[in-house]
Amino acid sequence: MRSRLVLLTLCAAALPVAAAAQPAATPTDAAAPAGAADSELELSPAEQAFAKAMAGATLDGSFTLSDRPDAKPRAERYDLGQVRKVGEGMWLIPARIRYGDHDVELPITLPVDFAGDTAVIRVDNLGFPGLGVYSARVMIHGGKYAGYWQGAGHGGHLFGELKHNQPADEAPAVDKPAAEKVEEQATTPPAAD
C-alpha cells in the first residue's frame, strides 16, 4: 500500500520528531479560522499565482515507494476544487485523491509556505479518512509538482504536472479498484465479430 499526499497531496521531507509524538489530526480538524472571510485576506503576488494555478487543476503524476527502489513509479491523481486562502498561511484545498484502489474526496486545510515564487504545501502527521496518516512536503512551481511523502513506516517521492480544463474522457487513466474492473468486465457485452 502506498501513502502520500499531496497535496496533493503532495511532496518533500521527513516527519518531524515532534509531530510523531502527537496524535494524528484529520483534514477537517484544521478548519478555517473563525472570521476569516475571503475578502479580508490580502494575497501576495506569489499567493495569487498559487491560487490561480491550483484552482480547478488536476495534479497528474506518479509516486514511488522507498522500500521498493526497483519498482516502476505508480500513477496518482489529485482533482482540485476552488483553492483559497482561509487564514494566515492556511489554505483550503478541496481534493479528490486517486491512486491504486483509493478514491476519496476531502476538504483539506493545509499550511502553505512560499520560498520566493515557489509554494510548499506542508502535511504533518495528518490523518486522511480511508487513506491513513501521512506527512509530506510538496513544491508547486512552473506547472509542476514534486516532493516527498511518508506514512506508516514507508514513503517515497511524488511528482507530476498541473493540468487545467481537461475533460474527464480525455483525462489520463487512473488505476481502477479491482472490484470496479471485475464489474465492468461482467457488464460489458462481448464484441461482435
TrEMBL record:
Highest taxon above the source species: Bacteria
Keywords: Signal
Stretch forming the signal peptide: 1-19
Region (Disordered) location: 162-193
Protein name: Uncharacterized protein
Organism: Posidoniimonas corsicana
